[in-house]
From TrEMBL:
One of its GO terms (cellular component) is cytosol. This is UPF0434 protein E3202_06285. Belongs to the UPF0434 family. The lineage of its organism: Bacteria, Pseudomonadati, Pseudomonadota, Alphaproteobacteria, Acetobacterales. InterPro entries: Trm112-like (IPR005651). It comes from Oecophyllibacter saccharovorans. Pfam families: Trm112p. Residues 1-38 are annotated as: Disordered.
Amino acid sequence: MKQSASAPAPDENPSSDGRLPGTDAAGSTNPQREVALDPRLLARLVCPVTKGPLEYDRQHNRLLSPQARLAYPVRDGIPLMLPEEATPY
């Protein structure tokens, strides 16, 4: 059965005011909003540059690659693992 365009997908839970999680009143996402990173995901991720392990920096909501000295941002719980998104730390 086809869902109407206004109904959220089954895995999306709108808030009491009808907004999807991680969106503001205008419906856009807030990149500064911290969403917990699943530890199972962190255990499987590696730095795309060095293929070494990553550490989660909860205070700045980013993944750190100690070998490359690069920080990968995490936005809405999704790590951005592209080298061009990384910043030196």
